[in-house]
Design a protein that fits this description.
- The chain has six helices and seven strands; from the N terminus they run H-H-H-E-E-H-H-H-E-E-E-E-E.
- The chain is of the alpha+beta class.
- The chain folds into two domains: 2-136, no CATH class; 143-207, OB fold (Dihydrolipoamide Acetyltransferase, E2P) (Beta Barrel), CATH 2.40.50.140.
- A hairpin with a 5-residue loop joins strand 1 and strand 2 (68-70).
- The protein starts with a helix and ends in a 6-residue tail after the last strand.
Amino acid sequence: MIEWWNSLEPAMKVLWAVTLSASLVFVIQTVMTFLGAAGDTDFDINSDFDTDAPSDISDGSADAGGHGTEHPSTGMNLLTFRNFINFLIGFGWTAILLRDSVPATGLRLLIAIVVGVLLVVLVMLLFKWLTNMQESGNIDVYKSAVDSQGTVYLTIPGERAGEGKVQITIKNAVREYAALTDGPTLKTGTRIRVVEVINPTTLLVEEVNSIII
């Protein structure tokens, strides 16, 4: 390995160093992206490290956890750190792989630049598609939750004395929301019906078959 490295021209050493560094950053970004998707962390910080634009992750709608649905950054802002890394990966690996098959330096660099730009565009389109897919699966809680039934997940104090949690079924999917009740305390496992949507993350519920005066 050392002999191979020493045999490289200075320009190739720089190219290899930049390409390998960009590839490592890409792997880290990808891992953090999936970790962010699995948890409740800020997806934009994890996936884009975008130093040119503010976070735009939350659309305010409710997901299965009852909190604003988070989605990956669309990647449509051209001047992002992720796009820069993607360009370096496309450019660097293309220039390295074409070193022997395309001896003309100018042509090789041109091809590498084109590949780098294409990779940036493809990743941007991929993020846009993922965002559209995420948004298409969002639920309008104001339209869909009222009259839905479910069960109490965490005890709900009576007379709106505090919040508990409920799990309700909307469009064949079980979703969890914070919940209040105007009636008596609702214990875990109690069957409930949604009376009103207080906000995108909080519902007003009552026990099924109960009558609130």
